[in-house]
Specification:
With 112 residues, this protein is an alpha+beta fold. The protein is built from three helices and six strands, in the order βαββββαβα.
Length: 112
């Protein structure tokens, strides 16, 4: 099993969520987070300068089977893409086991 952690623009969250549901990834967790990025310049909106050094993003955690990893990652890449600085990052790590508390199933059955 793999854990996919994605940090994306808040404005792209609904697109990513819809795309994940379309490929039948129906369970994942998410949080609103603030991070610091590489962009150094601020933005001006209606005459007011805003700092972009602290960036509001959404953080998703998705656990999938090994054979579903590529499809999940590609779905997030496609749905979160704008082509601009700050689109986000995806991290993949190994999950050694998962348990469903209600049924005590573990492994692949514990995540489906």
């Amino acid at each position: 099993m793999k854990k996919v952690e994605a940090i994306i623009r808040k404005s792209k969250f609904d697109d990513v969520k819809k795309a994940l549901h379309e490929i039948e990834v129906n369970f994942f967790s998410y949080w609103d987070v603030t991070g610091v990025g590489n962009e150094k310049q601020g933005h001006v909106y209606r005459g007011i300068s805003y700092s972009t050094s602290d960036i509001q993003r959404r953080y998703l955690v998705i656990v999938v089977s090994d054979d579903f990893l590529e499809k999940t990652v590609n779905t997030v890449l496609d749905a979160a893409y704008t082509g601009n600085v700050g689109d986000g990052k995806i991290f993949v790590s190994e999950v050694t086991d998962a348990y469903r508390i209600r049924t005590r199933e573990n492994g692949y059955e514990g995540i489906n």
